[in-house]
Specification:
GO terms for molecular function: DNA binding. This protein is an alpha+beta fold and 138 residues long. The protein has a domain at 34-107: Arc Repressor Mutant, subunit A (Orthogonal Bundle). The protein has six helices and three strands, in the order H-H-E-H-H-E-E-H-H. Helix 1 crosses helix 5 and helix 2 crosses helix 5 (97-118).
């Protein structure tokens, strides 16, 4: 029988992801955001104005499935969706000042929790873990 060397990455990271998502849920609720709403605001805050189709590709979502999220964010005054002057069938997305403030306040709280969790690792391991996670995510 072959010796198992380590668990699969998905098995190891799955537990961590469940823990992170469980910790983020009340933070997102406190700020009136869904997970997808936070993802959309993050993408718009981190980059230039995007079309709905480009945003969907950037966040790995089906463009038809994020319409409800975009509607809610727009209704809450967190994003704007304006017709593209070059093609009125296309909507250009932009984060509003309120959307930027809400996204950043949410991110601050999420990263404070992450910092507490990462503090369980020695400092050098923390830095290496973050570098590795960034490299593997790209």
């Amino acid at each position: 029988m072959a010796e198992r060397k380590r668990p699969d990455l998905a098995a190891m990271l799955g537990g961590l992801m469940r823990r992170l998502m469980a910790a983020e849920a009340p933070i997102l609720d406190e700020h009136g955001l869904s997970m997808w709403g936070y993802v959309v605001l993050s993408a718009l805050d981190d980059g230039p104005v995007r079309t709905q189709a480009a945003l969907a590709r950037a966040i790995g979502a089906d463009k038809t499935r994020i319409i409800g999220t975009l509607d809610k964010l727009q209704d809450d005054g967190l994003i704007s969706r304006d017709p593209d002057p070059a093609d009125r069938r296309v909507r250009l997305l932009a984060i509003t000042d309120e959307g930027r403030a809400r996204r950043r306040a949410t991110q601050d709280r999420i990263q404070a929790y992450e910092d507490e969790l990462l503090a369980r690792l020695p400092e050098g391991d923390r830095a290496a873990f973050l570098r590795a996670a960034r490299a593997l995510a790209e």
